[in-house]
Write a structure and sequence with these properties.
single chain; alpha+beta; two-stranded antiparallel ribbon; 5 helices
């Protein structure tokens, strides 16, 4: 009686498959195998076939055979496009509002805010700094300005150390003839320099305003990091356009005498930090 066969022995016994030519019985090839290897290969083949079948049924065949698939995909795409359009509309609306606020600021919108009462600056709310006898036009402007991103001007230098951490170039070499005095609606300083002197950008930034205004002539404004805006007025020529990126010390305009609020060639230079005017002489050596 031969040895008893076990399952492990049956799986691991090696067999030889010989393939012969049917006509002349010539040996063509031989294949060595055991049942364990055959079962493994068949199992892997079944798993792969099953995975491919599931993929085809849930994706390819679904697209080919389900009439609702195209409609569902179209609806999803419409929803994505609608969300993208809404986001773009909101972004454009915010950009337009910001640009309009800056334009009002550059074109003399700050004149709508009346003189400050010195003894009430520290104890009075910003709204109390406005006169009650303003015209309806100024009243409408005040309402729009209070709701805008810029908010009301408090004329308080609250820049602190944030601006002092920035290295700011002097925009032009010359003599300061009039200083910073917001109580008299003079929100910057006046610098007299040589004729055709180039005006330098005080720091890296992006040009957000470059146009002509009746009061200030050719005006250019640059947005810098840290919510800082620099404004250059009464230029004879602007060398940059809106959207241009400018670097520290780069020439952006030529000094001039344009606009009604000027009596000679000079640069009117302003710094605005977080919607408030600050004294440029506190941060730049002229």
């Amino acid at each position: 009686m031969g040895p008893k066969k076990t399952l492990s022995g049956w799986l691991t016994n090696r067999y030889l498959l010989i393939i012969r030519n049917e006509e002349n019985f010539a040996e063509k090839t031989t294949v060595s195998f055991n049942y364990a290897r055959v079962i493994l290969i068949m199992t892997l083949g079944f798993i792969i076939t099953l995975a491919i079948s599931v993929y085809l049924v849930t994706s390819v065949f679904d697209q080919w055979l389900d009439p609702r698939h195209a409609e569902m995909m179209a609806n999803r795409q419409v929803i994505r496009l609608s969300m993208s359009i809404d986001s773009l509309e909101n972004e454009v609306r915010e950009k337009d509002q910001y640009i309009n606020n800056v334009k009002m600021l550059f074109e003399g919108g700050a004149d709508a805010i009346t003189e400050l009462v010195p003894e009430e600056i520290e104890t009075t709310s910003p709204g109390a700094l406005l006169r009650d006898d303003i015209t309806p036009i100024d009243s409408q402007f005040r309402a729009e300005y209070e709701q805008s991103d810029l908010g009301l001007l408090t004329f308080v230098d609250n820049a602190g150390d944030e601006l002092r951490e920035l290295y700011l170039f002097s925009p032009v070499s010359g003599i300061v003839t009039q200083g910073f005095n917001p109580k008299e609606d003079h929100f910057g300083i006046d610098i007299v320099a040589k004729e055709n002197e180039g005006i330098l950008c005080v720091a890296d930034g992006v040009v957000i305003f470059a146009s002509w205004t009746l009061d200030s002539g050719y005006v250019i404004g640059v947005q810098h990091r840290g919510n800082l805006i620099s404004v250059y007025k009464h230029n004879s020529e602007l060398l940059k356009n809106v959207g241009n990126f400018v670097t520290s010390g780069e020439i952006i305009a030529i000094i001039g005498n344009t606009g009604e609020l000027t009596s000679g060639p000079h640069l009117h230079f302003e710094l605005w930090h977080k919607s408030n005017p600050v004294n440029p002489k506190d941060y730049i050596t002229f």
